[in-house]
Amino acid sequence: MLELLAWGDTGWGDELVRGTLMTLAVAVCSFALGQVFGTLGASAKLNGGIVTRALAEIYTTVVRGVPELLVIYLLFFGTGNAIMGVASLFGYTGYIEVNAFTIGTLSVGLISGAYSTEVIRGAIQAVPFGQIEAGRALGMSRARILFRILLPQTLRYALPGLGNVWQLTLKDTALISVTALAELMRSAQVAAGVTRDPFLFYAVAAVLYLVLTSISTYAFDRAERHSNRGVRRA
Amino acid sequence: MNLSIMWDAVPKLLAGVPVTLQLVGLALLFGFALAAGVAWMRLSASKLLSRIAAGYVFVFRGTPLLVQIFLIYYGLGQFQAVRASIFWDILREPYWCGVIALTLNTAAYTSEMIRGGVQSVPHGQIEAARACGFSRLMVFRRIVAPIAVRQALPAYGNEIILMVKASSLASTITLLEITGIARRIISQSFAVFEVFIVAGAIYLLINFLITRLIRYAEWRVTPHLRRPA
């Protein structure tokens, strides 16, 4: 049984580890993209006009109310079709395949962003308005208020919520296996199919996911403790 | 965008709604029972029971649901002992594998909500009830349960919606619920946008109704927060 997990051509150890690294890469990129979407969504919800606010509201409601798998399918099958549709307008009728990593990152990032929007919005609102007024009374510029008052506290308030979003994002990357991107879940599927030993490989995949989530939990705990170092506890 | 394809897809996709709701309903029902047991173990004075429960929650919250479904559906079937056992009648059915995976998954999350709810009950209230001569059962029924339910209901509402969304993963083990049917229609008609948009709208509608129901339930269990008419 252990020789199945060996390194190199005889076993699947290296494939699984490479899959884990790919999962990590997709998760990090999606999470980063999600922060961009989340910040845009939160500022749209808090400061936008009627149209941008409505758009942000539709974005979070739809993406959070529809199964993640459906979002991934829609982007995976849909983006290729859409790009080919545009290309055919310019007279190109060949088949265009969109890179699975890009599609995967985009779709999981979109999901991650919808959840981040709510977390960031709540964190911004948690900063007492009196502090911003105080900043203004001292003659601080908008940018300085943002960097000295709003941002440091928003980060602290958002950290626990963003930790949850990161865990969700990490686990959602498993769904990208439907696009045949060689991340951890897909590597386990291939190995299980070839060796006819699904239990072993899915169990190993589960353990590797557990390792990733445990390290994340630890890291976010540390980060939270670090960001709360100036806060007095009752 | 082809409206007639969308219109044709509506009845076909709606045929998957009962399967989705059954999966979710059964998983929530069994999951809640299991979660109550796990929460009881987690809160018990026995270190061993508490550790087992914590380990269970750790494993099922730390791994993707897809891995859990595949482990149960594909993984267990590889053992001759499982195939020879009486459980094989259940474990070879994708439907029941889906129900089992969703049950185990939701139970892990729900048990933490129950634990949080129970722990949110102020200790003084339990002491007061004891001082009034309440039996253990009575303390639970009259004091702990109502406060815990109020505390845990919003989070449990989110969990129900997460379950509706998670049930779409059952399509990966050949179950024909909403997502499974959507994929089958697309493989015949290639109308990706049309079909997935209708499927998404059905999920949104289900989740919208559930949020309404949960809000009503929250309103029912918090009469003390209502403004007098």
Automatic annotation (TrEMBL), chain A:
CDD domains attached to this UniProt entry: TM_PBP2
Top-level taxon: Bacteria
Signal peptide: none
SUPFAM superfamilies, sorted: MetI-like
Gene3D superfamilies, A to Z: MetI-like
Keywords assigned by UniProt, alphabetized: Cell inner membrane, Cell membrane, Membrane, Transmembrane, Transmembrane helix, Transport
One term of GO molecular function: transmembrane transporter activity
One annotated Gene Ontology cellular component of this protein: ATP-binding cassette (ABC) transporter complex
Oxidoreductase found in the keyword field: no
The ABC transmembrane type-1 domain, residue ranges: 20-220
Annotated localization: Cell inner membrane; Cell membrane
Membrane topology, record value: Multi-pass membrane protein
Transmembrane stretches, start-end: 20-40, 70-92, 199-220
InterPro entries per UniProt: AA_ABC_transptr_permease_3TM (IPR010065), ABC_transp_permease_HisMQ (IPR051613), MetI-like (IPR000515), MetI-like_sf (IPR035906)
NCBIfam families reported for this sequence: HEQRo_perm_3TM (TIGR01726)
Family: Belongs to the binding-protein-dependent transport system permease family. HisMQ subfamily.
Protein name: ABC transporter permease
The organism of origin for this protein: Skermanella stibiiresistens SB22
UniProtKB/TrEMBL annotation, chain B:
Residues of the ABC transmembrane type-1 domain: 17-214
GO cellular component: ATP-binding cassette (ABC) transporter complex
A GO BP entry: amino acid transport
Domain of life: Bacteria
Membrane topology recorded in Swiss-Prot or TrEMBL: Multi-pass membrane protein
TM spans (from-to): 20-41, 53-76, 190-210
Record key words, sorted: Cell inner membrane, Cell membrane, Membrane, Transmembrane, Transmembrane helix, Transport
Subcellular location: Cell inner membrane; Cell membrane
PROSITE patterns, A to Z: ABC_TM1 (PS50928)
NCBIfam families, A to Z: HEQRo_perm_3TM
Protein name: ABC transporter permease
Pfam families to which the protein is assigned, alphabetical: BPD_transp_1
